[in-house]
Amino acid sequence: MALFEVRDVTVRYGGVTALRGANITAEPHSIHGLIGPNGAGKSTLFNVATGLVSPNQGRVYLDGEDVTKRSPHGRARRGLARTFQQLELFGVLTVHDNLLVAAELHARRPGGSGDPRTAVGAMLERMNLSSFGLARADHLPTGIARLVEVARALMTRPKVLLLDEPAAGLIESETEALGRLLRELAAEGLSIILVEHDMELVMPVCSTVTVLDQGEILATGTPDEIRANPAVVQAYLGASAGAAQ
Amino acid sequence: MSEFLTYTIVGLVTAAIYAIAASGLVVTYTTSGVFNIAHGAVGMFGAFVFWQLRFGWNWPTWLALVVVIGILAPLFGCGVEKVLMRNLADASEATKLAVTIGLLIAMEGAALWIWNPQDARPFPPFYVNNKVSFFGTYVTWTQLITLGTFVLCVLVLWFILYRTRIGIDMRAVVDNRPLLMLVGGNPNRASRLSWILGSSLAAIAGILIAPTLQLSVAPLTLLVINAYAAAIIGRLKSLPWTFVGAAIIGLAGSYVVGYLPVSTVGWLQNLPLAVPIIILLIALLLQPHERLRGYIVRRSRESFPVPSWRLSLTGAVILIAVCAALAPVLTTQPLYFLSTGLALGVIGLSLVPLLGWAGQISLCQMTFAGVGALAFAHATGGGSLLGLIAAFAIAAIIGLLTALPAIRLRGLYLALATAAIAELFDSWIFGLPSVTFFGHTLPLFESGALPIARLSLPGINLTSNRTYLVVLAVIFCIFGLLVVTIRRSRFGRALIAMRESQAGSETLGMRTTTLKLGVFTLSAGIAGVGGVLLAGVQTQVTPTQFSFLESLPLLLLIMAGGAATVGGATFGALALGVFGYIGTISTFIYQIAQLLPGLVGVGLGKQPNGVSADISAGLAKLAAWLPGDIPGRLGLASAAAAVRVSGPVSTGSPPSTGGSPAGPGPAIAGGGVADAGISIEGRH
Fold first, then answer.
1. Count of domains observed in chain A
2. What residues of chain A, 104 to 143, have a C-beta less than 8 Å from chain B?
3. ipTM value of the model?
4. What is the model's pTM?
5. Can you give the pLDDT at residue B673?
6. Hey, how many other C-beta atoms are within 10 angstroms of the C-beta on B672?
7. Which residues 40-59 in chain A show a CB within 8 A of chain B?
8. Is residue A234 situated within a structural domain?
């Protein structure tokens, strides 16, 4: 069984079906890309995965346990962390305190790395965010704020990390650096699901890519298979390539 | 059968009045997004003005009605919308509520000023002696007129909402405000009309109910609670369900009086008054669970500085020193008001973690204070320190019991639930001399004014008012430092995080429900201690000291001072003391002092941080001018740095640095913090 699995999930909002029988899995040491046009259901899938939305059908498994009925915080305590497409930083707190809140929630979990403040310092250092430590989170440029959300999610020492468009608002060099960081994290054993529109980031770092369109899985495969899939090119990649020109 | 019919008619007539009031509330809320706590106060004012025209100046009834309902009430609604409410579209729920609370207090103060409450004002119902026979019982013309007025109001509302262009705009605003603007509609015009309609409907309800309630300020103002209940049953948007709600409340109240042994069973004696409140609580608890949503993009205008120890300790020493210096020289009255201010300050401190950080609006802090005072009075009798602990514990338990059902509510609904709990205590529990459960008698306020011993501390004689003032200052500072400690702790950070993003907090692993229960419990406990200290100032307690309406000015002034800081709570509480004192100078100034908290609250829409933010910014600027390390010694250095580094508090989109949409930097993130708009928050 996969470390993390969303199995056969359907979500309906009134008459609109946001997800229809969607599946996705995540394994340790790997990055799984989740791509698709806006409105395809990617964020809804993350909301189901983290317990913010209850699915009409389907299950969510984390580390061999069915967590479909578990609360968002129950899942977080079992090693699931995420970032948000629309930022959910603690705006009036400093960057340092944003991370500290997360670290303190998990300080007493077995395998804790000692003093939360030391861990926060180390994480800020690692993400090159030290100079922003005392800045208020709601005063940050969007790109930096997204990185702070990634750093905050990492403070929970997750097994599975769901990233919702972390590169939106980053310039090219920053996106490259983010790619390096994601590879490092995967190499350390983390299991990552990455929602992203920037194919320059997705295709090189992901071992598997799933394409979602209008709530349904269109294809799953290696980046090369996905690039060669005519249905995917028609629904998404072709359009994005056209837009890029 | 005829008895049942009589109770049904009485119930339906009351229901008609509640329905008129509630429909005004719903129309205003849905269209303008502001829940008008002062709706009952508008009705009260309308009834008083009508009385003045009709009975004071002997105008013909029809003319008085036309002037009040057709001219003055609409003008008032129009003015309120234009002056107060239009700026509130982006304000937080707490600020919106505070502004209407301010309006309530100001109108209450104005009514007491214009119409001396000592004078009798007979308000005979319309055509009370004419009645018609109806299936073996009688229906008075008054009752028929009330029911007819209700039908007329429904027809007028229906016509405006469904048969006029602006009515379509009003319904469109409810669905989607931006979309209405895109198609050329005018939400402000719709909003203004909703305030006009709301004021007129409130005035009609006030005039209709005044004969039964008598023409007095507080009961008419609190009529709004009964209207809330009906409006909540209509989920604040459906008028038909609001009318069903009003019918349930009216009939239930009437049948309780008719069929329950309210005059013989002791604890039932005040129940009829509490029926609408109990229904309100049930309706609130049956509200569908609001889905925990992400995607609430909110830029806070509020600031949450981390207080430094040095600044906090300096403040504490100064406060105690000033009180110690003033204690021997102050005359009785200033001494009394300063002591009251400090005791209220402790209750105000209870709002700092709850409202200031966690963003949970509680309108029942005075109720918790009252519970604390009662516990202290009855627990040990002698006013020992043990009694103080009992007061904390029992108030905390009541806080927890309040929070358990209310906790799933947020924002406005939580505020209304706490208001309902405050009213439940006011109209029912605090009115009982004692309660007997399973043979155990729990004494309450007994004969009304309950004597209470002052806190006694070993080695200190607290019978002197002067010593008591100094001890109050010390206790206030202890609790102030406790609150500072909490702000600097994990708990304090978690509370602010929860308020900033509940979805973010939950997905990080925070148990937000436990956290909310925790902060409610702690806050109620602190309020309980404040209640003991307040009772000690007069060495007696009365239920009115701890009424719902008493919670409002305190809440407002704490918010005006700055609810997120101890300094703000200190400022707010001392301002209440000062307002009380200047009120003793002359009757005229007393009247103005009654208005002041309201005016302060009304001003909150402009400066949500409260004045303490301005004061600390001013102090910091001053510190920047001081030579050498004086600011550092006073703990002002960090504040000064904040002023130097920070730009204006950003309320718009985040500033970009340089030409790129992201920050500059070699690796993932680089660059400095000294960009405009990035501020440095206190020290760690």
1. 1
2. 104-106, 127-129, 131-132, 134-136, 138-143
3. 0.93
4. 0.85
5. 36
6. 13
7. 47, 50-53
8. yes
